[in-house]
DNA sequence: CGCCCGGTTGACAAAACTCAATCCCCGTGG
DNA sequence: CCACGGGGATTGAGTTTTGTCAACCGGGCG
């Protein structure tokens, strides 16, 4: 593995506290691969052979049932996905595909579980990571069950503005059809939801979004730290 | 704490692998309390002062936003709730209330974190528990995003039948208004969804449900292990 | 007995989806 | 350089799903 990747990974919160030789052991059987966009990395239901880590690019976690598909989350550098499946040695609950050209590190799940069994710092880091993931999903579920689609879009835009640096004008990081899937609506409906937010100060021109008056949008969206704050 | 409660807790997967003296330390500052029905045990947004464990009865985890309320999960004996908040020392994301008269064990979060820091078996047990919780919520989210309300009800009934022992006739463990909230619909809509399932072999008379022909209902519901199986 | 409350029903309204047509950007190839 | 084609985005019309409001039913309990 390239030295730069090695260093990037070592600094991940997940690997920070573990013993050097255990980290080295993980890295020995890990490898990094670059994938073009739109490649399916894993398929739900498959056994979890590798822990995946996004080093660059972006990965979409999605799921299919009865011919319908929905996007569950986007994974951006540098973070892992399907940690829970790896730890429990259980099948993937979601599929994953690259959104852009992406560099992915793969660590055999077997080896992750072995090191988990012997390295206490690693075990505790995993607790922290999983607790974080759990709380994120709970927030997503509250978003889904308590808000209308337009309210979800409004709050999504408020979060996206912060994530991209807080400028009044920013760029949606994805196609609108995929944003629709993330929000749990059809692309047509999303289009109408955007129009519905015009009166609350949202200007959308393609993927470029402009929030004219954040506090006005907030009055409509009513963001809540227990749903929308990334931290905590 | 009563000796029987002590033994019950000790056998929990979460506490099984930990050192005796660490378990004893947790128990020393823990206490068990019995609550009547409909008591609010915790409120979302509050700091997570205690890890809660349901010893008997049942607890509803719910959440409120902008005047709307939704039921997120039901906790039945013997299991914990708000473990993630305790570990991260973060505010509760959900509120909790007793559904019936319930015995609840409370362990100060501070103490849980302390023992987590020193007992490796406990730390690993928490990993396993959190990974399980995480996967459960992911399944719930797939259920919500990929299925219509009637499909959710149909699959819920199939799961409930298995959970209660597999008899053709069984009892809903809760009021229908709460089931509606769990499924993310209004009580009126749930009522209509039940009627819609009559043609798929579901007979509902109050809280008593009868599934005339499970395979017929399954043809409609299309249950999927990656959404509906409790294990894995 | 009569009240209260959960459940059901009906009528209507709002939200969201479907299908089809069109637009428009962008990249390709002539 | 421009015409063409493809795919995402938008728009419109109509349908389905879900929610709202009000009325009513019926069992359990004081």
Please tell me about this protein's structure.
- Chains A, B: It comes from Halovulum dunhuangense.
- Chains A, B: Residues 14-133 form the Cyclic nucleotide-binding domain.
- Chains A, B: Keywords: DNA-binding, Transcription, Transcription regulation.
- Chains A, B: This is Helix-turn-helix domain-containing protein.
- The structure is a homodimer of 232-residue chains.
- With 232 residues, the first copy, chain A, is of the alpha+beta class.
- The first copy, chain A, has helices at 3-10, 13-16, 20-28, 83-88, 109-118, 120-146, 149-163, 176-183, 187-198, 214-221, 225-228; strands at residues 31-35, 40-42, 50-56, 59-65, 68-75, 79-81, 95-98, 102-108, 169-171, 202-205, 208-211.
- Chain A is built from 11 helices and 11 strands.
- Chain A has a 4-stranded antiparallel β-sheet.
- Chain A starts with a helix and ends with a helix.
- At the A-B interface, strand 4, strand 5, helix 4, helix 6 and helix 11 of A face strand 4, strand 5, helix 4, helix 6 and helix 11 of B.
- Chain A binds a DNA duplex (30 and 30 nucleotides) through residues 148-150, 175-177, 185-192, 195, 206.
């Amino acid at each position: 593995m390239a030295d730069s990747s090695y260093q990037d990974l070592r600094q991940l919160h997940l690997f920070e506290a573990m013993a050097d030789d255990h980290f080295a052991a993980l890295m020995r059987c890990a490898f990094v691969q670059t994938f073009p966009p739109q490649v399916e990395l894993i398929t739900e239901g498959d056994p979890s052979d590798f822990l995946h880590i996004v080093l660059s690019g972006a990965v979409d976690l999605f799921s299919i049932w009865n011919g319908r598909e929905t996007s569950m989350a986007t994974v951006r550098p540098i973070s892992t996905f399907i940690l829970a499946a790896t730890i429990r040695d259980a099948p993937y609950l979601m599929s994953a595909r690259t959104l852009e050209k992406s560099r992915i590190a793969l660590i055999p799940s077997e080896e992750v579980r072995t090191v988990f069994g012997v390295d206490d710092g690693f075990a505790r880091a995993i607790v922290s990571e999983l607790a974080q993931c759990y709380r994120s999903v709970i927030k997503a579920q509250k978003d889904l069950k308590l808000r209308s689609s337009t309210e979800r879009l409004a709050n999504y835009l408020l979060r996206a503005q912060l994530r991209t640096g807080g400028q009044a004008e920013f760029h949606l990081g994805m196609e609108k059809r995929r944003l629709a899937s993330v929000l749990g609506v059809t692309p047509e409906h999303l289009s109408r939801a955007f129009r519905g937010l015009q009166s609350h100060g949202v200007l959308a021109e393609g993927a470029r979004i402009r929030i004219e008056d954040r506090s006005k949008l907030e009055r409509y969206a009513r963001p809540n730290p227990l749903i929308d704050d990334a931290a905590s």
